[in-house]
Amino acid sequence: MRVKRDKKPVPDAKLQSLRVANLTVFDSAEFQFSPQLNVIVGENATGKSHLLKVAYSVLAASAEEGRKPGSSAPTKALLQTMLAKKLVAVMRPESLGRLARRSQGRERCELKCSFSDARLNIDFNFSTMSKTEVVVERTPAAWVEDSAVFLPTRELMTIYPGFIPLYDSYYVEFEETWLDTCLLLGSPLVRGPREKRAAELLAPLEAAMGGKVVLDQGRFYLTIPGQGHMEMPLVAEGIRKLAMLARLIATGSLLDKGYLFWDEPEANLNPALIKHIAGAILHVCQNGVQVFIATHSLFLIRELDILLRSDVNKGGISRFFGLHRGADGVTVQQGDTVDDIGSITSLNEELSQSDRYLEAEG
Asked: Does the global pTM surpass 0.70?
């Protein structure tokens, strides 16, 4: 039977599941996502960033094509080219086939993405021999409409001036998520009815930063009452990470729809700022954005757990994933609470240190 292709993008669809086979460190795993908050926890080298980047690549490639004026409906040939290009640009392997896990008798990587709107579902694969070729097995009937945002472990506010023309004009060894996010940071501010909603979400972030983020002559500043503009390189790095989130809310990229992928939000932040980040993450996902974070910070996980247990935030909006290394690759334990993900060594070490510190004092 011939499947009708819908040229019109699909708004506000959520990623329901991601199934991977033979991808980098994973032999086989399936992730069932929450439409709001998803927390991926694991030690180093367990594939946390790989998961974020693969899911982001699929969403971003679809949204980029769907936003083009006069874009045609999805076709297998177009998707194969787009996905291969985006995966290589985001994950930076020497060739696409380097992303396929190498084990005897298994040379093909398979990925299946399912959405709340089945028109977006897509299955594809590639082999260890692939240079730039993806094979699409299931072609979606429509494009993703909403923006996918990827925040890396470092802030991008200080590199923003001149970064986009540099990336466009020269070959530089920066993953394409940096370019994608810089383009969104430079988008115009929302106006009209959404502006008021943005102001409500921005209020706690601006209180934590002590000012507002402004873009002036191609450079970002923090405007502090009574002090004027402060150049972003002079602002503390933790505040700059908050500033990225604030700017993306102000432009509408993370206001009431879309997807946020954030790799180690806690990196280079003190505990006080991590508390603000945790609160901001929950506010964003409760207002329509599907959030995926990768972390091994016990403090951040506990802060999210505390907020999720509060009366205001109850409602089963979260999903936790524990990644565990084994002889046959990384496996996943998942559930609605952090108690469902099994024992994570890096988290246990933080708890053990607290016990040893108390013993030393005694």
From this structure: yes
